[in-house]
Amino acid sequence: MFAGNIGLRGGGAPARTYIPELLDDVLVGRIEPGRVFDFEAERDGIAEACAAMDEHRAVKSLMRLGPVGRETRR
Question: Which residue range(s) make up the domain with 41?
């Protein structure tokens, strides 16, 4: 690797690129997010989810914020 001017570079994965494509699959159940996320929290547990990732108790946190879609008024 160090001979012949060969280098190795890396960077972050462009995850946001794939979110629109994969979100529908997660919401209808074709993809199980539990295989990716190892910590779940409700809206009031966001701080705990961030702390879990910061303290390496979790790799990815799933936030359950409630129903997705437009609200209808009655």
Answer: 32-66
Q: Which residue has the higher pLDDT, 65 or 33?
A: 65
Helices assigned H by DSSP within 8-58: 15-28, 46-54
| Cβ partners under 8 Å of residue 63, min gap 6 | 40, 41, 42, 43, 45, 46, 49
Question: Has residue 74 got a pLDDT over 50?
Answer: no
What's the rounded Cα separation, in Å, for the pair 53 and 46? 11
Q: Judge whether 36 lies within some domain.
A: yes
Q: Are 61 and 40 in contact (CB under 8 A)?
A: yes
- How much is the pTM? 0.46
Two tokens, residue 1? 């690797």
CA distance 57 to 59: 7
